[in-house]
Design a protein that fits this description.
This protein folds into 4 domains: 116 residues, Rossmann fold (3-Layer(aba) Sandwich), CATH 3.40.50.2300; 190 residues, Rossmann fold (3-Layer(aba) Sandwich); 72 residues, Helicase, Ruva Protein, domain 3 (Orthogonal Bundle); 62 residues. The chain is an alpha/beta fold. The chain is built from 20 helices and 13 strands.
């Protein structure tokens, strides 16, 4: 067996390993040169017997398989490969391309079927599709164990009536294809609920694909969701599949759905209604069978009234809604969450902080938790890493005016109106200076007031506050600010 090494690694580890099974030495030589040039490590086999015998040594990430082989033919080889290594994608190659062979190969589990002679771009796309789909599958497996334990903790800890309602809804709709809208403040665990719905569904063996709708501008988000054809725009040198295609037969989680531009909302509505969309620059429609779970921390009803969110899409998404209560409304779960985060971070950082003091737990039970479960986890992580509770307790006390349950706030925080700033005259606020003068509580109050005055237009608010849009989103999450508050 010939072997060619490549210096190009994937994710700072070994390069992808490609097994080429073809009885034509000319094709093997061509594939060896082509695959090596792509940065993959290639192994060559002239027949199925050789390839199957050396399978434990080659450990391929992708296999290219000729349909016509001496001895064991390609389709039989495909059956044996899928039995031995079911997770490895197999790209079938054929000089004939008979419809019967194509159909049978796809039924047996082939990831793609190319006719010889094929274009280099076709093979690159087949590899890209196969490898990315496998990466998604591996990510699902990696997250499965972790998500199960964290989900059970989030959903089963305490006996809060609101959390019982969340559990009941999840159990009722998880094993259906119905669209679900998850609502709640930042840090409450909306993604965890989405992953729970996925894990309990009949699609759990298929991909789970997450897309943050606030992370990209609308032009890039469209190509990310729906892909594009070669030549669709400057720089589109080859076809790119979208997240909806990768999530076909699985689940797509659209986080911060309220941040999607209205023009893109129309395209999403078409997918929800018809299961069809077109890639950028494409003429033919692409059909997908993808379950949609969406999440938001905004008041979508107000967004509909303001015209920033389509009413028809709102009703299409709002078939079943899961409302996750903030942590301050389910304090009975804090002790179990603390215990879980202690064990998790002790293991991750090789530490041994066994339990928190009663003083710290008393503070936790009174604290208002603007950042919800995410804030609690971050605080516990710092305690574990530093081996001390003092820094976190000091941080909470230094916040001064940050609401703590059952306690009266101290000096009134700095307010926007006290600064005599007139936004109508184009004046702005130096948010960094405010933070230095009035600490986090003043920052929170200022952001909240500016958002209210701009009708929760975040881009406009960011301009008024002289910070970037992403920085404003971070500050809002940090301070537990959402329009649904």
């Amino acid at each position: 067996m010939a072997q060619q090494s490549s210096a190009t690694a994937h994710n700072d580890s070994e390069p992808f390993r490609v097994l080429v099974i073809d009885d034509d030495p000319g094709v093997r030589d061509y594939m060896e040169a082509l695959v090596t040039r792509q940065g993959y490590q290639v192994f060559l086999a002239a027949d199925a017997e050789q390839a199957l015998a050396d399978l434990d040594d080659t450990r391929p990430d992708v296999v290219t398989l000729d349909v016509v082989l001496p001895g064991i033919d390609g389709l039989e080889t495909l059956k044996r490969l899928k039995k031995r290594v079911p997770e490895v994608p197999v790209v079938m190659l054929s000089g004939h391309g008979q419809a019967r062979n194509i159909v049978e190969a796809m039924q047996l589990g082939a990831s793609d079927f190319l006719r010889k002679p094929f274009e280099v771009e076709e093979l690159e796309l087949a590899f890209q599709k196969a490898l990315e789909k496998r990466a998604l599958t591996q990510e699902v497996e990696r997250l499965r164990g972790r998500a199960r334990s964290e989900t059970e903790l989030l959903l089963l800890c305490g006996d809060n009536p609101k959390m019982r309602e969340v559990r009941d809804i999840i159990e009722q709709v998880a094993d259906t294809d119905i669209t679900v809208l998850v609502r709640g403040e930042s840090g409450t665990g909306k993604e965890l609920v989405a992953r729970t719905l996925f894990q309990l569904s009949g699609r759990r063996e298929q991909p789970f694909v997450k897309v943050n709708c606030a992370a990209l501008p609308s032009e890039l988000l469209e190509s990310e969701l729906f892909g594009f054809e070669k030549g669709a725009f400057t720089g589109a040198q080859k076809r790119k599949l979208g997240k909806f295609e990768y999530a076909n037969n699985g689940t797509i989680f659209l986080d911060e759905i309220s941040e999607m531009h209205p023009s893109l909302q129309a395209k999403l509505l078409q997918v929800l209604q018809d299961g069809e969309f077109s890639r950028l620059g494409g003429e033919a429609d692409v059909r997908v069978n993808t379950r949609v779970i969406a999440a938001t921390n905004r008041n979508l009803e107000e967004a509909v009234q303001e015209g920033s969110f389509r009413e028809d899409l709102y009703y299409r998404l709002n078939v079943v809604t899961v409302h996750i209560p903030p942590l301050r409304e389910r304090l009975d779960g804090i002790p179990l969450l603390v215990d879980h985060f202690l064990r998790k971070n002790n293991e991750q950082y090789n530490k041994n902080l066994q339990a928190l003091s009663q003083e710290t737990m008393d503070v936790f039970m009174k604290y208002n938790w603007p950042g919800n479960v995410r804030e609690l986890e971050n605080m516990v992580r710092r305690m574990v890493v530093l081996g001390s509770e003092a820094t976190v307790l000091e941080e909470i006390s230094l916040r001064g005016n940050t609401p703590i349950r059952g306690e009266e706030p101290g000096e009134a925080p700095l307010d926007v109106e006290e600064m005599n700033v007139d936004f109508s005259k184009g004046e702005t606020i130096d948010l960094k200076a405010i933070s230095r003068r009035a600490a986090q509580v003043a920052e929170k109050r200022v952001i909240e007031r500016v958002l209210a005055q701009t009708r929760w237009n975040r881009k406009e608010a960011a301009e008024k506050l002289q910070i970037s849009y992403k920085a404003l989103l971070y500050k809002m999450k940090e301070n537990g600010l959402s329009q649904s508050r």
